[in-house]
Design goal:
The chain is mostly helical and 82 residues long. The protein has helices spanning 4-17, 24-29, 40-54, 60-64, 71-81. The radius of gyration is 11 Å and the shape is globular. It comes from Pseudoalteromonas luteoviolacea S4060-1.
């Protein structure tokens, strides 16, 4: 089972690889959709990476909910569906 910290670390590393450098405190409030940090392909890549790395299925509904554009909200939603 994935922990909140592990998911946050994974997402932080994913964003850093794409030039977005944030502290963990900033990360939870970061809206990667509103900031335009990830295009649709990158969001799909992140989703597939989470599914593969954590064996955690990501429901399509999670990605349709605008609130989940904020990293902390996405992690919370992932933890709730696990």
């Amino acid at each position: 089972m994935a922990s909140k910290e592990a998911l946050l670390t994974y997402i932080q590393q994913f964003l850093e690889e794409r030039g977005v450098i944030l502290s963990l405190a900033e990360l939870e409030k970061y809206n990667f959709v509103a900031e335009g940090a990830l295009d649709s392909f990158e969001i799909l890549t992140l989703t597939m990476g989470i599914e593969t790395h954590f064996s955690l299925p990501v429901a399509p509904e999670l990605l349709l909910d605008e609130r989940n554009g904020v990293v902390g909200n996405l992690v919370t939603a992932l933890m709730e569906q696990a």
